[in-house]
Design goal:
about 140 residues, alpha+beta, three-stranded antiparallel sheet, 4 helices, about 35% helix
């Protein structure tokens, strides 16, 4: 009788084990990585100035505006290239910041008091052409 019970137990164990293996469904999961890139807006406009000291002052003024990612003023072309996060700032705020440092932009005249405080080499001609194209 013990052999019969033992045999039934072994058979039952094999049946349950084999059923378990058949019931297993392999599920493959894949991991998708999404990279979010900040959208940048670029802006270019003319700024009057003469030299490397002007470049430093103009770029610092533009970079002082919250949201500006980079500002590069071209001495020869008298223009500034600005990159900033879309929707974070108003372009006029950049013009105003540069004008407050004493430099004329295409939209805002430079602050005269700040202009008077600029070094001699930075005293630009108020009639100079801005945003000069190299074409």
């Amino acid at each position: 009788m013990k052999k019969v019970i033992l045999s039934i137990a072994v058979i039952a164990a094999l049946v349950f084990t084999s059923c378990k293996n058949e019931a297993k469904i392999e599920v493959k999961t894949t991991k998708t990585e999404v990279t979010v890139t900040a959208i940048k807006t670029n802006l270019t406009f003319g700024v009057r100035g003469n030299c490397g000291m002007c470049k430093k002052t103009i770029e610092e003024a533009a970079n002082s505006v919250e949201g500006v990612a980079s500002a590069i003023w071209d001495v020869d072309q008298k223009k500034i290239d600005i990159s900033f996060g879309d929707g974070k700032i108003d372009a006029v705020a950049i013009h105003i910041a540069i004008a407050a440092s004493g430099y004329d932009t295409e939209q805002v005249a430079g602050n005269e008091e700040a202009y008077d405080g600029l070094p001699g080499c930075c005293k630009y001609d108020h009639a100079m052409v801005m945003n000069v194209s190299n074409d």
